[in-house]
Amino acid sequence: MAHSSRIAMFNVGISILVLALKYAAFLLTGSVALYSDALESIVNVATSIAALVALGVSAKPADAAHPYGYAKAEYFSAVIVGVLIVVAAISIFREVYLGWLEPHAFDAAPMGLAVNAAAGVINAIWCAVLLRTGRRARSPALIADGQHLLTDVISSAGVLIGVVVAALSGWERLDLVLAGLVALNILWSGWKVLKESVGGLMDQAVPGETLTKIRQVIAAQATGALEAHDLRTRQAGRMIFVDFHLVVPGDMPVCEAHAICDRIEDALEAEVADVLVNIHVEPDEKAKQQGIPVL
């Protein structure tokens, strides 16, 4: 988590730098489309701060009040990201509406376009860092921030090209059309972030490939038991929770059943990072003849 927190701190600084560059590009050109691009960067600053706070909270160890830890705090950060994205989109739509009622010329100054392009390049590089770090650390906050930044990179490139076309063609309202398209793209990004965050808050199961790995480890390490059934998983930020029933011979000593459970837990912890395992041992009459066969 220390590496993720450092990345989150850098994220705040880079977001502020990109915001300054994009706002400077808007001042140099007067383009509503570039203004919409700068407004989205304000959201980036706010969400980067939210991600930093969430990572700090989620890193706190479990205590009496929160025995399963604080990992879900990152989902609240991701929800905030989604809400702020929607607010930014509404603000852009407002500017487009006012600009359509009272069109005004803009200046596609080369310096302004170059500054905006530089901000886009910085965002593209940093987006790759955020997504890679977030996926490795299974951090919803960093992944949400990276996904939003990816949307920002794509829309910024489209806006930059469109502003140049609008200036060359003389169709000034194309600038407003582009700003509206940016707002729609932002709304779509916000919807995806909110959808994934709600899934986490609702105790969504682990991805299929992770579940397959968990089942394989249980099957390989449960030698001495008869079967494992009622396997359940859920995710809370970087943490993965696994619980299932392990059926053993009715006359098996408690110490032997306990040893099997320890072996399974150790193997799962070695294969799946940040996993918490809970095993309920049952006698053979509880077998269901379904679930995970023991190898």
UniProtKB/TrEMBL annotation:
| Residue ranges of every copy of the Cation efflux protein cytoplasmic domain listed in the record | 207-283
User: What is this entry's stated membrane topology?
Assistant: Multi-pass membrane protein
Q: Spell out the NCBIfam families in the cross-references.
A: CDF
Q: Which domain of life is it from?
A: Bacteria
Q: Which Pfam families match?
A: Cation_efflux, ZT_dimer
Which residue ranges run through the membrane?
Answer: 12-35, 41-61, 73-93, 113-131, 152-171
Q: What is this protein called?
A: Cation transporter
Q: Does this UniProt record's set of keywords contain Oxidoreductase?
A: no
Question: Whose protein is this, by species?
Answer: Ancylobacter radicis
The UniProt similarity line reads: Belongs to the cation diffusion facilitator (CDF) transporter (TC 2.A.4) family.
Any idea which UniProt keywords this protein has? Membrane, Transmembrane, Transmembrane helix, Transport
Just give the chief location class. Answer: membrane
Cell compartment(s), UniProt? Membrane
Q: Which residues form the Cation efflux protein transmembrane domain?
A: 12-202
